[in-house]
Amino acid sequence: MQPVARHRTALSRGALSRPLALALADGVLCADQSVFDYGCGKGDDLRNLRSLGVDADGWDPSHRPAVERRPADVVNLGYVVNVIEDPQERARALADAWRLANQVLVVAARMTWDSRDLVGRPHGDGLVTRTGTFQKFYEQAELAAWIEQITGSRPLAAAPGIFYVFRDEARAQAFLSSRVYVYRPRVAIDPHAVYEAHQEVLAPLVEFLTAHARPPRPGELTADDHAAVRDAFGDRPQAEAGSPGHERRLLGAGQGSAAE
Ligand SMILES: C[S@@+](CC[C@H](N)C(=O)[O-])C[C@H]1O[C@@H](n2cnc3c(N)ncnc32)[C@H](O)[C@@H]1O
């Protein structure tokens, strides 16, 4: 008998889940791409995606077991791996979802800090909650390393607990270059061209963003790396991370004049 009630983990959602909403906002998922939601729960994401005109289908062992698991441009594995108590089955779910992803796999799992108020009894590498569901909580680096181990591809962080795994390295690079751009008021620049021209200097920043999906705080880049960016971009560079609509400072304030 299954020791935990996995079907109870599926939520009812009024809006798109965060991983899919992020994928849309990041341009990783577009309306003309097909989506397969692996472990889709009650199917609310499918309904919401279809209402946006996206060709979306999904399978869930408890809620949509009869649907055939089929390849799609974008496959979503949203908050599934953390409810599976058997590590081998967990790895199989990730490997299966990756196999179906023609272009990109979106993986989301709950984070350790999310578990602070949760009461439960230890079970395997996670815990069983009072409602009888299993939850495995991840550290960001742990989740990234596990995804890379199973898929053989380096995942790129979209947000804490949310990763993109691209099939094609060129698309991964395009996503990274869209994350790192240089913003100077009233001067139109091509972020891709800037990224290409400064790839080497930006590499430590890109590495940091890839793992953390946030700008580094003071001290998280070496002084040399920080100085290299300052030298490349002038006295008051505004190296930013994120899409132009989500301007975030790439270099943390207080790490020198470059980011002040
Ligand atoms: C927390 S829900 C997430 C549902 C949906 N992806 C969402 O974000 O709303 C976890 C889902 O994983 C499903 N699940 C459990 N074991 C699975 C497996 N081995 N493969 C795929 N899905 C599984 C459960 O049935 C449940 O619906």
3D structure, described in words:
- The strands form three sheets. A six-stranded mixed β-sheet has the order 2-1-3-4-9-8, sandwiched between helices. It has a three-stranded antiparallel β-sheet with strand order 5-6-7, with no helix packed on it. A three-stranded antiparallel β-sheet has the order 10-11-12.
- Helix 7 (about 200-210) packs across helix 8.
- The N and C termini lie far apart (about 60 Å).
- It has helices at about 20-25, 45-50, 85-100, 140-150, 170-180, 190-195, 200-210, 225-235, and strands spanning about 35-40, 55-60, 70-80, 100-110, 120-125, 125-130, 135, 155-160, 160-165, 180, 240, 250.
- The protein is globular and about 55 Å long.
- The protein contains eight helices and twelve strands.
- The model is unreliable at about 235-260 (pLDDT under 50).
- The chain has about 260 residues and is α/β, with parallel strands linked by helices.
- It folds into two domains: about 5-165, Vaccinia Virus protein VP39 (Rossmann fold), CATH 3.40.50; about 175-260, no CATH class.
- The structure holds S-adenosylmethionine.
- S-adenosylmethionine binds near residues 40 and 60.
- S-adenosylmethionine binds near residues 6, 40, 61 and 93.
Produce the secondary structure layout.
Blueprint: H1 18-25, E1 34-38, H2 44-51, E2 55-59, E3 72-78, H3 87-100, E4 101-108, E5 120-123, E6 126-129, E7 134-135, H4 140-151, E8 156-159, E9 162-166, H5 169-179, E10 180-182, H6 191-197, H7 199-212, H8 223-233, E11 239-241, E12 248-249
Parallel strand pairs: 1-2, 1-3, 3-4
Antiparallel strand pairs: 4-9, 5-6, 6-7, 8-9, 10-11, 11-12
Bound molecules: S-adenosylmethionine.
